[in-house]
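Narrative summary of target 7.
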Amino acid sequence: MVLLLVITPLIAPTQAADKINTTQDKSSNKLTLLSQDNIDHWQEKSFVGHTTYTFEHPSSNSTDSSNNGGNGIVLNATSKNSASGLVKRVRIDLKQTPWLHWRWKVTNTIQAPDNQPIDETSKSGDDYAARVYVIADGGLLFWKTRALNYVWASYQAQGSTWPNAYAGENAVMLALRSGADKSGSDKSDANQSNVWLTEKRNVYDDLQQAFGKDIRYIDAIAIMTDTDNTGAEASASYTDMYFSDH
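Modeled conformation, tokenized:
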């Protein structure tokens, strides 16, 4: 599923300018998205059932030595034949803070029940162990809404892009990690289970590359672990998510 189909009602024009849902470090122009101060601002949107999302403080995760040096909040997600995501309304000026940072890990990538490869470019295979969306709202012109999906794919090659099976050209998928790719710069890319990996993306540049136009503002960000189309199970964790100017 893709949150673009229902994102516009969540970020209506009267709400889109809400900028208080981030924690801002003015000295470094850093906008923190996952912190103790703003976890209540993430709203769940369900398509099929409910992915289980839980926020974990580092004090209860002290044995996980790989999760260190961040803001402390870990979002854990478990999906069993379900599809729901967490959406955070926040208007980001990509001219000021274009860089999106986060760390994530997955317990497993997705396999169909019959262990056959899935086609992630089709509706029947549109499931991902982990994904992070950025959404530019089209307002009343809902057909102008655009979404870029950074996904942890199971079979699509790392670095590949394709239109979302449900939303078409309005939502572009970008495989940052892939269970099928053994050529990544990180040695764990071939078998990445339970390994924290760090991402840093220039969202302004990525949107321009994906849609061929300058998009200065995004209006929401979303996180989703979903398995409804394949009937599979997947677990992932997300942490240290923020925008910055470098």
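The CA atoms of residues 70 and 240 lie 5 Å apart.
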